[in-house]
Design goal:
This protein has 325 residues and is α/β, with parallel strands linked by helices. It contains 10 helices and 15 strands. GO terms for molecular function: oxidoreductase activity.
């Protein structure tokens, strides 16, 4: 099979298309003929050797994919060959950027016939992270104000979708006016050209945002501490800015702010049955139309390297997805 393979972790990242053996499913595993694979910022960090965990080499990236079940190992009970599915891996070495991949059955979920593979591939991990952050960890309620940083990226756009489904007033921030114009939100703020705190206070009548979804960190985290409402919840999703921020505990104290870390993969891994119950609830929201997964930027299989480069350069809009014929 054809696969994008990394044989050393270094910056700039080094991946190439190679011929690799087609993997065989073991007990409880299914093999997927991949038609679309999602790319993530976390994978760029793995490729450059900057991630906190290092998968074994050779490394086939992409932990999110959609396609058709090709074969089932012993003891698989829920899925059958020929079934349309979307899948994700709780680690970053899911092997999705290939013609075939093998995953445990529990990571693979059937999808509707009318859901495009490109949309499905970018849905599970981003929406799960947003759902876990806003529903389980942040307890976002209808009528509250949700501020989403990095709203033009994959995880941020998923947070907008979940926030709208809950019934919150949604504010999107970004640094590119053209990309911001394409997102669906009640308010849009270019945080480079607009003073963030002043605009948030103007929108909220001086109260601030109830919940802040922050995958960016750095200076935006610092500004968020000044734009959050008393008793607000600041959800730390990541630090794509490259600088993990430090919270001033005196501000946490006097404003009674909760700063909450959210890691979607670890939530599934460590929350046990509660995590899977939440995950199934998210799938139900998608099935009944409350969530509307959509691919952002699509690339041909031969252009996957460019997809990762655009993620690093912040040139993409929404989730980056590679289409595999």
């Amino acid at each position: 099979m054809k696969a994008w393979v990394c044989r050393r972790f270094a910056a700039p990242f080094d991946i190439a298309i190679e011929d690799m053996p087609v993997p065989e499913p073991g007990p409880g595993e299914v093999r997927i003929r991949v038609h679309a694979a999602g790319l993530s910022f976390g994978e760029t960090m793995v490729l450059e050797g900057r991630y906190q965990k290092t998968p074994p080499l050779p490394y086939i990236p992409s932990s999110e994919m959609a396609g058709v079940v090709d074969a089932c190992g012993p003891s698989v009970t829920r899925l059958v060959p020929g079934q349309r599915v979307a899948a994700f891996s709780v680690s970053l070495d899911g092997g999705g950027l290939a013609e075939y991949c093998v995953l445990p059955e529990s990571f693979v979920h059937g999808i509707a016939d009318d859901l495009a593979f490109a949309d499905a591939a970018g849905f599970l991990m981003n929406h799960w992270t947003a759902f876990n952050a806003l529903v389980r960890r942040g307890n976002l309620q209808a009528g509250e104000v949700l501020l989403v940083h990095g709203a033009t990226g994959g995880t941020g756009s998923a947070a907008l979708d979940v926030g709208r489904a809950i019934g919150a007033t949604v504010i999107a921030t970004g640094s590119d006016d053209a990309k911001l114009a394409r997102v669906t939100a009640d308010h849009r703020i270019n945080h480079v050209t607009t003073p963030l705190r002043e605009r948030i206070l103007e929108i909220t009548g001086g109260r601030g945002a109830d919940v802040i979804f922050d995958p960016v960190g750095g200076d935006l985290f610092d500004q968020s501490m000044r734009a959050i409402a008393t008793g607000g919840r600041l959800l730390v999703i990541g630090f794509t800015s490259g600088r993990p921020a430090m919270a001033r505990t005196n501000v946490l104290l006097v404003k009674m702010i909760s700063v909450i870390g959210v890691e979607g993969r670890l939530a599934i891994e460590r929350m046990g049955e509660q995590g899977w119950n939440d995950f199934r609830e998210m799938l139900a929201w998608a099935a009944d139309g409350r969530l509307k997964p959509q691919a952002g930027t699509c690339f041909a299989f031969a252009d996957a390297r460019r997809g990762y480069a655009e993620i690093l350069a912040r040139k993409h809009a929404g989730k980056c997805v590679v289409l595999i014929d």
